[in-house]
Design a protein that fits this description.
Layout (H helix, E strand, L loop, with lengths): L7 E7 L6 H10 L5 E3 L4 E6 L6 E4 L1 H12 L7 H32 L8 H33 L14 H14 L5 H4 L1 H5 L7 H7 L14
Parallel strand pairs: 1-2
Antiparallel strand pairs: 1-3, 3-4
Helix pairs in contact: 1-2, 1-5, 3-4, 3-5
Bound molecules: glutathione.
């Protein structure tokens, strides 16, 4: 196992455009660790200088927890903020991302290439899902998050307090997915809207030679 005192020779991030790899990339940026992006996302392999084989880790939360535990303890808050931190480790991929996956599914149904006489049916299903489920739930979640940013300990501004933590990094992916689906997002949820602006873009482009495409680039409805 790697420790802060081990030498790492290489961390490879298996990358996919507009994917959860974004938050792992941001984390690697915060930790000032070198990254070599490759295939699928997000998976990392870590090659320690003194180890025969690389360590391979999948699942965003596992990757995040491993990296902050070994290389970035300052991204894990203490005391009352810690409980919020643990909460967001589950909330981001559990409650919030689950909702965004339903929104993605609805969008897929709406834009599916079907026979023209079936189109009113698929459009109707998508509209009902959007109106009855996704829109009201999204409003509930985003209002809650706006309030969380305002009331977080020590003046707030970040999800667990007044400083960046691993939780903010993990939240970026579902938040970006939400931004592209809510019209006038910046006016309704100004504090939440500012979160995605903290993403690192330069480092990925420099490391990979590829253009970084944020998930919020494409506007999609509900
Ligand atoms: N819960 C997993 C989800 C991983 C996941 O679904 N990744 C997507 C990109 S965000 C992916 O690899 N999709 C490509 C595919 O399924 O082939 C995590 O947090 O790592």
């Amino acid at each position: 196992m790697l420790t802060e005192t081990n030498q790492i020779s290489k961390i490879t991030l298996y990358w996919l455009d507009k994917s959860r790899s974004q938050h792992i990339l941001w984390l690697l940026e915060e930790l000032k660790l070198d990254v070599h992006p490759l295939g699928k996302s997000p998976v990392i392999d870590i090659q320690a200088a003194d180890a025969a084989k690389p360590l391979i880790i999948a699942e965003s939360v596992t990757i995040l927890e491993y990296l902050v535990e070994h290389f970035g303890k300052w991204l894990v808050p203490k005391r009352q903020e810690w409980l919020r931190y643990r909460y967001y480790m589950h909330y981001a991929e559990g409650s919030f991302m689950a909702l965004m996956l339903i929104a993605l599914l609805t969008h897929t149904i709406r834009s599916a290439p079907v026979w023209f006489f079936l189109k009113p049916i698929t459009t109707g299903i998508a509209s009902t899902l959007g109106t009855m489920y996704t829109a009201p739930n999204l409003k509930t979640h985003l209002s809650f998050l706006e309030d969380q940013l305002a009331t977080a300990p020590n003046g707030g501004g970040f999800f667990c307090g007044n400083e960046l933590t691993g939780a903010d990094i993990l939240m970026i992916f579902p938040l970006e997915a939400a931004v592209q689906r809510v019209p006038s997002f910046e006016k309704s949820y100004p504090k939440v809207y500012l979160s995605p602006t903290k993403r690192p873009v330069k480092r990925f482009s420099e490391a990979s030679g590829e253009k970084y495409i944020p998930v919020s680039d494409v506007a999609m409805g509900l």
